[in-house]
Amino acid sequence: MATQPLINAGRLWNRLMALAEIGATPAGGVNRQALSDGEIAAWRRVIGWGLDAGLTPSTDAAGNLFLTLAGRDRAAPPLLLGSHLDSQPTGGKFDGAAGVMAALEATVSLAEQGDRPARDLIVVAWMNEEGSRFAPGMMGSEAFAGERDMAAIRVARDADGISVGEALDRLHAAFPDLPHRSLGFAVDAYLELHIEQGPLLEAAVRTIGVVTGIQGKKTFQVVVEGAEGHAGTLAQQERRDALAAFARIATALHEEIGSIDPDIKFTIGRLSVQPNAPSVVPSRIIFSIDLRHPDNSVLDAAGVRITALCGEHAPPCSVAVTPLVDAPSNAFDPRLRELIAQAAREQEFPATDILSAAGHDARHLAKVCPSAMVFIPCRDGASHVEHEWAEPDHVAAGASVLAQVLRELAFALTPFAGKTRGN
């Protein structure tokens, strides 16, 4: 058990609650979507806390926010830790924000000791993890990891027709004096704390989840094209009803894809009907598909069947299936996972290995540097909802584990990424 606290738990909780005031909803949640006025306000608050502790703020072309505690060797690849500040339209106080605040607290607590780390420590808030305003999500971490081109990111638009490029330019204009870093600099290792967004830790009465990896995910946009017609005069057999075609497609997808095995997660989460008039045969349907599975071979096979089933059940309408996200399952660095487990043992927090069913920015960082995640429980496993909740003691425990791992890495003379197992 640590002889003294590694973090200031009260400060961490107070800052997390203060952050939740930005974009607060009447039902107690948060609406702070990517690149919005709310996120700009959140940046100002978080930057202020960082400056108070001597951390230097910066950003990049993708709108990622960085707060740097300078190390002795400024040229060495830094340690990176954080999550995201954006939320769902009816999101909660903890998704993403707890990870940024825990990273900030772990770094600030270390800085207060007065010992300068061997390399830079950088707290990061990734741009548009949620994908609620601009699709797909995780744009900032994908751009950082070189997986998505900035030109493609900037042209994506929200429901009001505002492009990511326009919103990014507005964000950067709000911080004209903020230095810009290169996109995708070398990183020694990456750590991310997050609420589980599931019920397993709570059910097992475990405070810390040592995340083994993230299950694979594919998303698609499907457009069904039919033809408008008068609801009172057009005979049924002559109709090219896009909504009827969607109903056939959705039924077939749920029956086949949704029943592949107990681990499959298949969701149609967004539906747009055009012209969406009560007396007009629908001419165009746009809908989204979210598909997840921990086995990449099952995920890939299901993805192929989605396209085939859409084609089989669309006639007499036409259909176009566009893949948006293709993120295979990944495993996190075993050495970092052991450091997390060790920190939990030494601080006497009950811990267990756990696979992440939800996607996180750490998925993309794992492709460019050793990466790992710390999970803490959330009440009833509820997330992406306004009643999302994590206990203060659990938030503090996760941040304390994060802080112990950070301190072990921060003062090591040998870069973590260059170590071999057993060193």
From TrEMBL:
<feature type="binding site">
    <location>
        <position position="84"/>
    </location>
    <ligand>
        <name>Zn(2+) 1</name>
    </ligand>
</feature>
<dbReference type="InterPro" id="IPR010158">
    <property type="entry name" value="Amidase_Cbmase"/>
</dbReference>
<dbReference type="InterPro" id="IPR036264">
    <property type="entry name" value="Bact_exopeptidase_dim_dom"/>
</dbReference>
<dbReference type="Pfam" id="PF01546">
    <property type="entry name" value="Peptidase_M20"/>
</dbReference>
<feature type="binding site">
    <location>
        <position position="130"/>
    </location>
    <ligand>
        <name>Zn(2+) 2</name>
    </ligand>
</feature>
<keyword id="KW-0378">Hydrolase</keyword>
<dbReference type="Pfam" id="PF07687">
    <property type="entry name" value="M20_dimer"/>
</dbReference>
<feature type="binding site">
    <location>
        <position position="95"/>
    </location>
    <ligand>
        <name>Zn(2+) 2</name>
    </ligand>
</feature>
<feature type="domain" description="Peptidase M20 dimerisation">
    <location>
        <begin position="213"/>
        <end position="315"/>
    </location>
</feature>
<dbReference type="GO" id="GO:0046872">
    <property type="term" value="F:metal ion binding"/>
</dbReference>
<protein>
    <submittedName>
        <fullName>Zn-dependent hydrolase</fullName>
    </submittedName>
</protein>
<keyword id="KW-0479">Metal-binding</keyword>
<feature type="binding site">
    <location>
        <position position="384"/>
    </location>
    <ligand>
        <name>Zn(2+) 2</name>
    </ligand>
</feature>
<comment type="similarity">
    <text>Belongs to the peptidase M20 family.</text>
</comment>
<feature type="binding site">
    <location>
        <position position="95"/>
    </location>
    <ligand>
        <name>Zn(2+) 1</name>
    </ligand>
</feature>
<dbReference type="GO" id="GO:0016813">
    <property type="term" value="F:hydrolase activity, acting on carbon-nitrogen (but not peptide) bonds, in linear amidines"/>
</dbReference>
<dbReference type="InterPro" id="IPR011650">
    <property type="entry name" value="Peptidase_M20_dimer"/>
</dbReference>
<feature type="binding site">
    <location>
        <position position="194"/>
    </location>
    <ligand>
        <name>Zn(2+) 1</name>
    </ligand>
</feature>
<dbReference type="InterPro" id="IPR002933">
    <property type="entry name" value="Peptidase_M20"/>
</dbReference>
<keyword id="KW-0862">Zinc</keyword>
